[in-house]
């Protein structure tokens, strides 16, 4: 469930006008920007962008880019994009930053719906004149490539049908690969990268019941192995995305300093999807609400924007 | 260019009525079926199917299935399907028949446009409650899987932009893999399965100019190796589909007996796409027109339907 709050009345023309006013004169009216953009859904934001362009002859994103800065700029820009444009942007950024950011690619490949992931691929074509899988394959190698490319390429079936005979068979295949320490086994990767989420869930439940451990426990033989970390993250994204995102938020917030890059990414990409569930999970796991954690770790307009996106205050 | 001829006037309701009449009484009026269906494009055939279902409460494909038989039945049924449903059907049939039919999967993966291939994947979900790549990955193994799965999964960029620096670099990578006899090299497969057709063409032209042979010549070290055959076919499908299809037709027609399975497949899948080019290529390569070759090798309603689809006679 989404957390953003959208008012009953909406006029793209009025919003565009208020935004344009917010940019005028000395300084910028950040409060107005938050009160408008943080409370509009993807379709509405797209309409505002179109009307803004028609009326003022300037791209709204470019105008925001000129007026804002730092973490607040990033959260507003990412949020304003449509989900598929935003994911295409994040994926391209991750590819350019190379190895450190395979997580972002994995997250996009494994937590979006099949059609949403396809929309990301179309947006990537349109913006970067290349295909997403082409860039991912080009910039990775070895086991990481073997895992990441099929995940990014996938177009999974999304029905609820489960074949239990197959689930048992494939749980056994996975178990054997893991017992033999063949963590890059091509059958293991085939199962993870092609089966529907419902089928995979049945397979992994059977794995747990039959072999005594959740699969991710059996995959924790070497906590520092980058490939194994990605493999576990893929399984978590595919079966319990809210737990995966809770952990990303937890690590982004905890300790000295904040990882604003991850915090902004998770909140802008999930606010219209399953942020309500992620907040519950966060509260359960950390005994503090996500609101409180964000308030403690961020400040100013950036803080206000994040809080608005996770449902704080009124539309 | 397509070969089918469509009349200026079209009424789905009239067509549905004429088809229903053709099925009635003792025997079937095959001439009417050909005169209608062979001269309607994909959108029109879909409309006729919808109206037929509404009016007579029966699926048109089921009715055709009851009335017709053998090669004529197959060509009419395959043709009547929409292109994406037809490809999904052919792919599923190929998967069930296993190893002998990797060609069909390869052909679908490499000769359809990116959006058409995506439509096949959607049709596959809808009809078989599974994903195409899931079935292909499950039913293949070894080098064949390594090649076929990424080809089937691809969603290539389709712009004309070419990066010549990259083309030179990747031609060299391919050359080195082939010189070392590493025909299943993952870089080689990455390039073939992810680059746009325009980019790939530039790379392979550079390969030819720089290293003295077309790549397919260098890949002909062992004429009976199944993997190498598929690799060469993939390259042909991606760069000169009309030559690939000409060869499939040539082999289907030549010698004793005819491979109706392949003949029907190529004609039904290309009649609305590039059959005109394939006919030219066939004539050039065999010094006989495709019409003549088909007339010599087939007969009856099957022959009439094939000839109508490749543009013989009037709409």
UniProtKB/TrEMBL annotation, chains A, B:
Residues binding Ca(2+) 3: 298, 303
SUPFAM superfamilies attached to this UniProt entry: Annexin (SSF47874)
Annotated positions binding Ca(2+) 1: 23, 25, 27, 67
GO-annotated cellular components: cytoplasm; plasma membrane
Residues involved in Ca(2+) 2 binding: 253, 257, 297
A single MF term (Gene Ontology): phosphatidylserine binding
Any Gene Ontology biological process: response to salt stress
Keywords noted in UniProt: Annexin, Calcium, Calcium/phospholipid-binding, Metal-binding, Repeat
Gene3D superfamilies: Annexin
Top-level taxon of the source organism: Eukaryota
Pfam families: Annexin
Domain notes: A pair of annexin repeats may form one binding site for calcium and phospholipid.
Alphabetical list of PANTHER family matching this protein: ANNEXIN, ANNEXIN D2
Protein family membership: Belongs to the annexin family.
Protein name: Annexin
Organism expressing this protein natively: Dipteronia dyeriana
């Amino acid at each position: 469930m989404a957390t953003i709050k959208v008012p009953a009345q909406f006029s793209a023309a009025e919003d565009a006008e208020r935004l344009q006013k917010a940019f005028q004169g000395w300084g910028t009216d950040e409060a107005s920007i938050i009160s408008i953009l943080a409370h509009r859904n993807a379709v509405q934001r797209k309409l505002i962008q179109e009307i803004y362009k028609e009326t003022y002859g300037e791209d709204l994103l470019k105008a925001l880019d000129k007026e804002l800065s730092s973490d607040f700029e990033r959260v507003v820009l990412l949020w304003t994009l449509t989900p598929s444009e935003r994911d295409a942007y994040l994926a391209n950024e991750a590819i350019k930053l190379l190895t450190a950011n395979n997580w972002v690619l994995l997250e996009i490949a494994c937590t979006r719906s099949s059609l949403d992931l396809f929309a990301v691929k179309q947006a990537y074509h349109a913006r970067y004149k290349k295909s997403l899988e082409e860039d991912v394959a080009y910039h990775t190698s070895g086991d990481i490539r073997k895992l990441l490319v099929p995940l990014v390429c996938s177009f999974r079936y999304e029905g609820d049908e489960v074949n239990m005979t197959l689930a048992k068979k494939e749980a056994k295949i996975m178990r054997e690969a893991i017992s033999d320490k063949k963590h890059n086994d091509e059958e293991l990767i085939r199962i993870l990268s092609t089966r529907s989420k419902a089928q995979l869930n049945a397979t992994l439940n059977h794995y747990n019941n039959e072999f005594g451990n959740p699969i991710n426990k059996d995959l924790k033989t070497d906590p520092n192995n980058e490939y194994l970390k990605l493999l576990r993250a893929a399984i978590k994204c595919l079966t319990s995305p809210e737990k995966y995102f809770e952990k990303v938020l937890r690590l982004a917030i905890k300790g000295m300093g904040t990882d604003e890059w991850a915090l902004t990414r998770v909140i802008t990409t999930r606010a219209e999807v399953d942020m309500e569930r992620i907040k519950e999970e966060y509260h359960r796991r950390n005994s503090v609400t996500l609101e409180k954690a964000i308030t403690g770790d961020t400040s100013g307009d950036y803080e206000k924007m994040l809080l608005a996106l996770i449902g704080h205050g009124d539309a």
